């Protein structure tokens, strides 16, 4: 069978841009959601299915690798998607977001992997993929040996920074769960709040920005709308010469007690970034040590 990748041209919005004049990292996941919906529609069309009676899927995991900054432009950005794995009760989509030149060369902005699981709409319980779904996915399959891996974190509550996550009505999807894209926003808000102390504590050093190189999110259980906030706990598990790793969990407890079941996990690699050269950099001597000192117990490395 000839390998086929689905291509989707995604328009950008001015509101997608962050303070570095790049597309904000959480917006890429929104783009992937649009491309995923277009791919699944194409799968149904190829199989001659108008709408599958069991056609309900939840995202179990995102693994997102950022390769280059994407700036705003009026032209759409291209997304190629394909099926990289089909298992008993899940399937995996791989994606590339890129710009293609007339000569065929590409600027790659992002690579990503998304694991989806089917479930029964009436009960909310997981189910197996049926033969019709497998046949629908087959035209876009490039099955390989590399598999998606669970996002494993270690977030000791007694050392973690706490951030309250308040769900808004607009965060919900058609299943009345918080949309998978919004989790990236929740973790971003917690990350900014947790690392906010660095600005004051490192004022003796030249200002250094950071960008995300890798962001992985594991969806453990649905987050739903409720008046009480959820808890997000974050620690810095590694501080290198040019990057740092932040591990986080969202739990269903309230009030920062440290209790409650884990609903989502995140591991993010932040790279120190020079806004003038638009490249990664190694901070000046003493910066790493000062940063660890400012963050205190939050650093578990």
TrEMBL record:
<dbReference type="InterPro" id="IPR050563">
    <property type="entry name" value="4-hydroxybenzoyl-CoA_TE"/>
</dbReference>
<protein>
    <submittedName>
        <fullName>Acyl-CoA thioester hydrolase</fullName>
        <ecNumber>3.1.2.-</ecNumber>
    </submittedName>
</protein>
<dbReference type="GO" id="GO:0047617">
    <property type="term" value="F:fatty acyl-CoA hydrolase activity"/>
</dbReference>
<keyword id="KW-0378">Hydrolase</keyword>
<dbReference type="InterPro" id="IPR029069">
    <property type="entry name" value="HotDog_dom_sf"/>
</dbReference>
<dbReference type="Pfam" id="PF13279">
    <property type="entry name" value="4HBT_2"/>
</dbReference>
């Amino acid at each position: 069978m000839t390998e086929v990748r689905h291509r989707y041209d995604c328009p950008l919005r001015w509101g997608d841009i962050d303070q570095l004049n790049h597309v904000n990292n959480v917006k890429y996941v929104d783009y992937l959601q649009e491309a995923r919906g277009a791919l699944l529609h194409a799968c149904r069309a190829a199989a001659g299915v108008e709408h599958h009676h069991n056609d309900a899927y939840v995202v179990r995991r995102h693994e997102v690798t950022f390769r280059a900054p994407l700036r705003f432009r009026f032209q759409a950005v291209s997304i190629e998607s394909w099926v990289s794995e089909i298992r008993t009760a899940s399937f995996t989509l791989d994606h590339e977001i890129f710009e293609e030149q007339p000569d065929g060369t590409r600027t790659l902005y992002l690579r990503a992997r998304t694991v989806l699981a089917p479930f029964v709409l009436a009960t909310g319980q997981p189910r197996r993929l049926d033969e019709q779904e497998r046949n629908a996915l087959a035209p876009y399959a490039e099955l390989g040996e590399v598999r998606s891996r669970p996002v494993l974190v270690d977030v000791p509550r007694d050392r973690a920074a706490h951030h309250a996550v308040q769900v808004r009505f607009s965060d919900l999807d058609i299943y009345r769960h918080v949309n998978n894209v919004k989790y990236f926003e929740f973790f971003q808000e917690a990350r900014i709040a947790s690392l906010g102390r660095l600005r004051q504590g490192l004022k003796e050093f030249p200002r250094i920005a950071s960008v995300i190189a890798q962001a992985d999110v594991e969806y453990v259980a649905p987050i739903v709308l409720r008046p009480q906030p959820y808890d997000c706990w974050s620690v810095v598990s590694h501080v290198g010469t040019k990057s740092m790793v932040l591990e986080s969990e969202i739990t269903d407890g309230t009030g920062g007690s440290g209790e409650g079941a884990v609903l989502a996990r995140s591991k993010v690699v932040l790279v120190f970034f020079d806004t003038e050269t638009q490249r990664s950099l190694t901070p000046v001597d003493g910066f790493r040590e000062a940063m660890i000192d400012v963050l205190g117990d939050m650093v578990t490395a």
